[in-house]
Amino acid sequence: MKRAARLTAILDLLADQGEVSVDELVDGFDASPATIRRDLDSLAEQRLLTRTHGGAVAQSVAYELPVRYKSHQRSEEKERIARAASALVSAGAVVGLSGGTTTTAIAAALAARDGLGEFTVVTNAVNIAAQLATRPDIKVVVTGGVIHSRSYELVGPFVEQLLGGILLDIAFIGVNALSAEDGAATHDEREAAVNRLMASRAVRAVAVADSDKIGQKAFAHVGGAELFDTVITDAEAPELTAAGYTVLVAE
Which domain holds residue 20? Predict the structure, then answer.
């Protein structure tokens, strides 16, 4: 296995398990202990994990893998969610897209969909803006702000200034957790603030989350059913329906 692929696989395991050991990685990747230690040290230097005696752990409760490492996780589910989200968009609409891997998939689905004509996408995610920038039929509006290196999202008061002066027909907000009790949440309070404002500026606000995130909790609250009238996910979530959300199951 090439080093880049091995680093990504290590991060995948860390995201799933919360911790990894050198012995586990040696057995899993058929690599020497010295090689695995160098890999873990390299990732620690990038602040993607915290080294421990004999392995590594996720940094904190606010730990989140960068978009570039998460884009292939649960990709089939995210593509199904993206198609379902795209179907909600009308021709000529103004669409808000927050950052995240699921909303990035929605951007691709919108770009591939026929019959939308010219429409507008407002986003605080620079990777989504770059993805759509070459499409002459899509007007791309990028918020200002300070870029978050892990998620490629723009955050801060410049974002809030722009979003406060526009109106969206529909907004798709990616979240890290969504529960009936605590609503939608993200790992970062700055992203949560932008997501909340973007959702509030939309006629219809839709939270998008694969089923692994349903029932989970995260650090920074975005909003509950009073903000999001619809949730798109890939499995039934009766607890969300009972809490007042309209749940669309992507097929």
Answer: 3-59
Q: In this structure, are residues 146 and 180 in contact, taking their beta carbons and an 8 Å threshold?
A: no
Residues 223 and 251: beta-carbon distance below 8 Å: no
pTM, 2 dp: 0.74
Please check whether residue 226 lies inside any domain of the structure.
yes
C-alpha–C-alpha distance, residues 250 and 165, integer Å: 32
CATH number at residue 30: 1.10.10.10
Q: What are phi and psi of 216, to 5 degrees?
A: -90, 165
pLDDT, tens digit (0-9, with 9 covering 90-100), for 45-63: 877 788 998 999 876 433 4
**159 found inside a domain:** yes
Residue 73 has pLDDT above 60, yes or no: no
Q: How many domains does the chain have?
A: 2
Query: Backbone dihedral region of 68: left (phi > 0), alpha (psi from -120 to 50 degrees) or beta?
Result: alpha
User: pLDDT of 13-46, one tens digit each?
Assistant: 887 777 899 999 999 999 999 999 999 998 888 7
Q: In this structure, are 191 and 163 located in the same domain?
A: yes
- The reply to whether 64 falls in a domain is no
Domain CATH for 89: 3.40.50.1360
For residues 18 and 102, state if they share a domain. no
